[in-house]
């Protein structure tokens, strides 16, 4: 009798474990299916977006418009570009490398992989190390489309992808070095000085609003560390200096003055120019960034006001970086919708971090289901954009 009871007691915990693990397996299958479905949509959209606009130009040596044949051609083309059209040397070098060495289908696969990598980096920068990683990755991939002011021009048009998708990966990798030490002491990664210097130079040289914004962010963080009596490490200083150098190299390019001279609004009076600049950043906030800003405000309200949590320093720096990169566009005579991509990604980092904090505080079935439904709704918004584009291309929508 005692042995029989003992065997029953041994079996019961095992049964409970099997019952509790079943929903987890079902959840993993669901998010896996959703991830694969998203990848199929992304692949078809990548294949459907044609070579267009600047793609054909950057596949040449630029001033002669003869096809690229070697790395020497790219080097000479970028020197010409720096002096005659603009200072985004890092982005356009990557574009020319793609056009020289990769076929169109291979470039499409690369873009797909980099979209997933960017989504993974958004999660990694926030330090989210709990469960549900597949769910967060799947939703983040969708959010990169659903919150995007122009997914086609920032992630699918090849030259645009190099200017925004590719460079955002560099920017987040650089920012991760600093944010990982914002809230707690962490050991330096091997070769930290080298990594920070190289990534800092590349990050500063990406585009006109993100590079300088992240440089200023590193200065603010080092100042905060010093104020709190924390050690400002050598790699932080060298990385910040390198980022500043990259930003100067980009902005001071002689080609920028050539390009700016062709903007009609620069011939207007000073007051009219100021009005147009203010209108540009307001349009960025209320049109391009509104979905991302609204979602950020919603999760902040729930986490801070309803649950009573506090923002950590990492989230404060990400939010500050988003504001700086948005505000920096007042210095530009033109604010295209795709230029909001970097700011949107920083806001998305805050959303992911706050969502993780909400789940840690209120990990109930109702909370999980509610957040999953909201996330899937935004994911569907992103996939809807891809589906509509494909349906128009296939002639299903006229």
Could you walk me through the main structural features you see in this protein, from its secondary elements to its overall organization?
Helices cover 76% and strands 0% of the residues. Helix 1 runs parallel beside helix 17 and helix 5 packs across helix 16. With 398 residues, the protein is mainly alpha-helical. It contains 17 helices and no strands.
Task: Using brief descriptors, characterize the structure shown.
398 residues; mainly alpha; globular; disordered N terminus
Helix-strand layout with pairing:
Elements: H1 2-48, H2 54-58, H3 71-84, H4 89-101, H5 104-126, H6 133-146, H7 151-156, H8 158-179, H9 192-204, H10 210-227, H11 234-251, H12 254-260, H13 270-288, H14 290-306, H15 313-327, H16 341-361, H17 365-393
Helix pairs in contact: 1-5, 1-6, 1-17, 3-4, 3-12, 4-8, 5-6, 5-8, 5-16, 6-16, 6-17, 8-9, 9-11, 10-11, 10-15, 14-16, 15-16
Question: What percentage of amino acids are in beta strands?
Answer: under 5%
Radius of gyration: 24 Å
| pLDDT averaged residue by residue | 90
Distance between the termini: 77 Å
Q: How would you sum up the global shape? A: globular
Strand and helix order: HHHHHHHHHHHHHHHHH
- How much helicity do the residues have? over 70%
Secondary structure category: mainly alpha
- What is the number of beta strands? 0
Low-pLDDT segments, ≥5 res: 1-17
For the sheet with most strands, the description reads: none
Query: What's the tally of helices?
Result: 17
């Amino acid at each position: 009798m005692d042995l029989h009871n003992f065997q029953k007691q041994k079996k019961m915990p095992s049964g409970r474990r099997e019952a509790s693990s079943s929903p987890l397996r079902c959840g993993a299958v669901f998010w896996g299916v959703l991830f694969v479905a998203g990848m199929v949509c992304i692949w078809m959209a990548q294949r459907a977006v044609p070579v267009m606009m600047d793609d054909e130009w950057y596949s040449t040596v630029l001033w002669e418009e003869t096809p690229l044949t070697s790395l020497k051609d790219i080097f000479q083309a970028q020197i010409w570009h720096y002096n005659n059209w603009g200072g985004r040397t890092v982005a356009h070098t990557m574009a020319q490398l793609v056009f020289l060495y990769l076929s169109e289908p291979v470039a499409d696969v690369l873009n797909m992989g980099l979209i997933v990598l960017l989504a993974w980096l958004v999660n990694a920068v926030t330090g989210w190390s709990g469960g549900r990683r597949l769910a967060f990755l799947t939703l983040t991939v969708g959010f990169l489309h659903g919150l995007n002011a122009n997914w086609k021009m920032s992630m699918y048009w090849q030259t645009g992808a190099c200017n925004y998708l590719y460079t955002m990966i560099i920017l987040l990798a650089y920012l991760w070095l600093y944010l990982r030490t914002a809230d707690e002491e962490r050991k330096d990664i091997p070769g930290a000085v080298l990594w920070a210097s190289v990534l800092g130079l590349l990050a500063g040289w990406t585009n006109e609003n993100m590079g300088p914004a992240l440089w200023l962010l590193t200065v603010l963080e080092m100042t905060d560390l010093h104020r709190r009596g924390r050690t400002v490490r050598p790699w932080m200083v060298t990385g910040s200096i390198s980022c500043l150098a990259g930003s100067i190299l980009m902005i001071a390019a002689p080609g920028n003055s050539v390009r700016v001279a062709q903007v009609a609004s620069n011939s207007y009076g000073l007051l009219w120019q100021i009005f147009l600049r203010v209108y540009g950043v307001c349009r960025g906030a209320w049109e391009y960034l509104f979905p991302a800003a609204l979602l950020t405000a919603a999760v902040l309200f729930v986490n801070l006001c309803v649950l009573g949590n506090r923002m950590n320093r990492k989230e404060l720096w990400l939010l500050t970086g988003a504001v700086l990169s948005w505000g920096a566009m007042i210095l530009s005579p033109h604010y295209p919708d795709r230029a909001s991509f970097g700011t949107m990604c920083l806001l998305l980092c805050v959303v992911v971090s706050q969502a993780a904090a909400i789940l840690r505080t209120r990990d109930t079935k109702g909370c999980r289901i509610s957040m999953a439904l909201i996330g899937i709704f935004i994911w569907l918004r992103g996939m809807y954009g891809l589906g509509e584009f494909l349906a128009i291309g296939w002639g299903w929508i006229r």
